[in-house]
Amino acid sequence: MRARKVRRSDLVETLTMQQPLAAQSARKYTRTAMAFHWLIAALIVWGFAIGWVMTDIPGFTPAKLRYFSWHKWIGVTVLVLALARLAWRAFNRPPALPEAMHDWEKLAAHLGHVALLS
């Protein structure tokens, strides 16, 4: 008995149908992913600014302690949001890189993300 030759289009269609919707590549990032991204980015900038101001305050004053506390809690909030973002990313695939990108650009993007996660 001879094996039937499988066409590539049949294989792609079968694989696409068997994957759950969340596993299929999206066309763009979800609103939730974008909200996580910009909220974390804003908190990092805010925490950096507070840290910068805090180091210029001389001595051990109540204002410096207040800024130190804010800086610390911004960092903790960024950590919690980053963990929530990773959990979201585990169940919601990001969009594929554009076809027009060169291979070296795709590699650079991938290495940049690996560097951020390490």
From TrEMBL:
Q: Does this entry carry the keyword Cell wall biogenesis/degradation?
A: no
Name under which the protein is recorded: Cytochrome b561 bacterial/Ni-hydrogenase domain-containing protein
Q: Where are the transmembrane segments?
A: 35-53, 73-91
Family membership, please give it. Belongs to the cytochrome b561 family.
The record's principal subcellular location, in a coarse class, is membrane
GO cellular component terms, alphabetically, are: plasma membrane
Q: Which cofactor does it need?
A: heme b
Top-level taxon of origin: Bacteria
- Its membrane topology: Multi-pass membrane protein
Q: Where is the Cytochrome b561 bacterial/Ni-hydrogenase domain?
A: 29-116
What GO molecular function terms would the record report?
Answer: electron transfer activity; heme binding; metal ion binding
Annotated compartments? Cell membrane
Return the InterPro entries for the record: Cyt_b561_bac/Ni-Hgenase (IPR011577), Cytochrome_b561_oxidase (IPR052168), Di-haem_cyt_TM (IPR016174)
* Cross-referenced Pfam families: Ni_hydr_CYTB (PF01292)
**Which terms does the UniProt entry file under GO BP?**
respiratory electron transport chain
Q: Which UniProt keywords apply?
A: Cell membrane, Electron transport, Heme, Iron, Membrane, Metal-binding, Transmembrane, Transmembrane helix, Transport
User: Is the keyword Zinc assigned to this protein?
Assistant: no
Supply the source organism for this entry: Pararobbsia alpina
